[in-house]
Amino acid sequence: MIFGRSERGKSPVEPVTLKILVAGGFGVGKTTLVGAVSEIRPLRTEELLTEAGRPVDDTSGVEGKHTTTVAMDFGRITLREDLVLYLFGTPGQERFWFMWDELAEGALGAVVLADTRRLEDCFAAVDYFERRSIPFLIGVNCFEDAARYPVESVRKALDLDPEVPVVLCDARDRESVKEVLIGVVRHAMAYSAGHRQSVTT
Prior knowledge:
With 201 residues, the protein is of the alpha/beta class. Helices cover 28% and strands 23% of the residues.
């Protein structure tokens, strides 16, 4: 569609817009993932790490990280002509978790990014979405210097329910991130359908 007029006589399509959260521990790649796939310039709320924050910002395993998200990352991607995703990256540090409830409002589902070098960092996000019955997918961000583990080993380590998808991804790669987002939309739709069925029976 160009300037409100449809091309070649096609009726304009009003896209469905869905909200997806991108969560996980500090330095796991949330900002990178949103930036890799967003078709608009992502809104970022990153600030430099400071000496004052050193006691609460655990940079072990991510010593090269110099900034942190203090509110959210925001991006948008059109998966199809009739389907647009709004991506909200959550802050990773515990002191900013109070924002999660507001960001989670109205979300279809979530991607929980995991780093196998610091797998325990995503426990809080997994627990958050399980407690609130928000469908989520685990995206194992395959860092170059991290060991590779089978998907089932990650599932067992995180004690996930069998229906929670676990996928390997590269948060820097647009196509890899698109597959993750398609996966979470599919999972969320299946989860909602199953939940509706259980309510009616």
